[in-house]
Design brief:
Elements lengths: L1 H18 L42 E6 L6 E2 L58 E5 L9 H8 L2
Antiparallel strand pairs: 1-2, 1-3
Amino acid sequence: MPGAGGCDKMRSGMSERKYRQRGYQDEPRPKAPKVQRAQEPRAPGRELQSAAGPKTPNLMASHEVFRCARCGNRLSLPVAPDARCSRCSVDLHACLHCVWFDTSARFECANSSVTARVAPKDARCTCPFFAPRTTIERQTGTQGPTSARQAFDDLFK
């Protein structure tokens, strides 16, 4: 068959072209000498950035907050042994509100000194290792006007 030999040559030519293409890595390029730029004149009165780096931006203020694990109500510190949340009435001196509470740890407590599991986790406990779990929150809200009328009047000041 005359066509069979032609196909083989065609296939080998295709595979050769497919994998033997000339590319940018085939021949080494001569390295060009580095050109130094002339220093640009800077604006008068403008200082160069210090070697210590850029200045830190003004970050929002932050504060430490203790919140109820059930309803998110903001609560005061320190926590009394018989304290309850004013919104949902859950006991605050409980494992659920403790800094050591960890569902993946043994007895669900990250403190290795605990020898027995306390259940239920939202009931009042007398654990000597209890410490309220606090979080750091940023103060994102602004101290705005107290009423809509005040806000309207502030527009025209």
